[in-house]
Specification:
By secondary structure, this protein is α/β, with parallel strands linked by helices. 36% of the residues lie in helices and 12% in strands. The protein has one domain: Alpha-Beta Barrel (TIM Barrel). An eight-stranded parallel β-sheet has the order 6-5-4-3-2-1-8-7. The longest helix has 13 residues. It starts with 8 loop residues before the first strand and ends in an 8-residue tail after the last helix.
Length: 303
């Protein structure tokens, strides 16, 4: 591990609520059979929002398991839970939403700041910092920070412990060289984005999701990206210029001092989530063992 200077990659996984049943199976496997998985990576957090959360953004929330059961699961494995409250269009009247406030009250850890909130709106940020000081905050990729100077400005905001830039900054290596260790420690790269690299409407797409979560009227956003009709394909993500592969994580980014990596997957099926976890976390010679353990569990809906 000398080329990585003993650094550990922290993966931030999708579907805290949507994939709760999947994680009930996967997390025991991960921690009881660490020999199946790379020793240079850990699960840093699991993020998401359940159905019906108007503060949600990025994707429309899916899954509605008992939040107390979800919290119990991540506490058992000492994993940080992140509530994805990245709605970009919130108004003052939305701050009193009972469901979102109840989730905050449940997940807040006043002593340890173990759980976090992924956030876009400064209005919501100021409200949450005052009312629920037991959270840490992550600046959402829905801000679409495509300019390096925007990323630096966001990194210098003390409110955020992590910043997720737009995936089109993932390969800005010449500019990364100028960053301090403290700045690098706050960057969280989105590794497996499938969106068209040249898309001019990414922010508009996220705003459309925000509007839907709030139940507001508005024109349906139509994606004009080439091959948009094909939906998400991991094979397509792998040829995206912004893609960060497992070898890139271990041999390029970790030696540079970048240790946080976000895997997208909310709104996709758990079968595809498993492929992400096999690719990024699992040793190649053990992937079949992990796949069999998951697929042979007939209680899981993998499609």
């Amino acid at each position: 591990m000398t080329n990585r200077q003993n650094r550990i990659a922290q993966y931030h996984l999708p579907g805290l609520f949507q994939f709760y049943t999947f994680y009930q199976k996967f997390l025991p496997l991960f921690y009881e059979h660490r020999e199946y998985f790379y020793d240079w990576c850990e699960i840093g957090s699991i993020y998401g929002a359940p159905e019906g959360c108007i503060w949600g953004g990025g994707r429309v929330g899916q899954g509605d398991p008992d939040p107390e059961a979800v919290l119990k699961l991540i506490k058992e494995y000492h994993i940080s839970g992140r509530l994805t409250f990245s709605n970009a269009l919130l108004r003052e009247t939305d701050l009193s939403d009972p469901k979102c406030n109840a989730l905050c009250a449940l997940f807040e850890d006043k002593d340890r700041q173990q759980n976090g909130i992924i956030i876009h709106s400064d209005l919501l940020l100021h409200y949450l910092r005052a009312r629920y000081p037991g959270f840490y905050f992550v600046s959402s990729t829905t801000k679409v920070l495509t300019e390096f100077k925007q990323l630096l400005a966001e990194l210098h905001r003390s409110e955020f412990c992590m910043v997720v830039p737009d995936f089109r900054l993932n390969k800005s290596f010449d500019q990364f060289k100028s960053m301090t260790p403290a700045e690098r420690s706050k960057v969280e790269f989105l590794v497996n984005e499938c969106c068209w690299f040249g898309c001019p409407d990414r922010k508009r797409c996220y705003e459309d999701v925000s509007r839907k979560n709030l139940g507001l009227p508005g024109p349906e956003h139509v994606c004009h990206a080439p091959d948009a009709a094909g939906g998400y394909r991991f094979s397509k993500a792998m040829i995206n210029p912004g893609f960060i592969g497992v070898e890139d994580v271990s041999k390029v980014y970790l030696p540079m001092g970048f240790t946080n990596f976000k895997i997208e997957g909310r709104g996709l099926g758990s079968a595809l989530l498993l492929e992400f976890l096999l690719y990024y976390l699992t040793k190649p010679e053990c992937q079949l063992k992990v796949r069999e353990e998951i697929y042979l569990d007939n209680t899981l809906d993998l499609f």
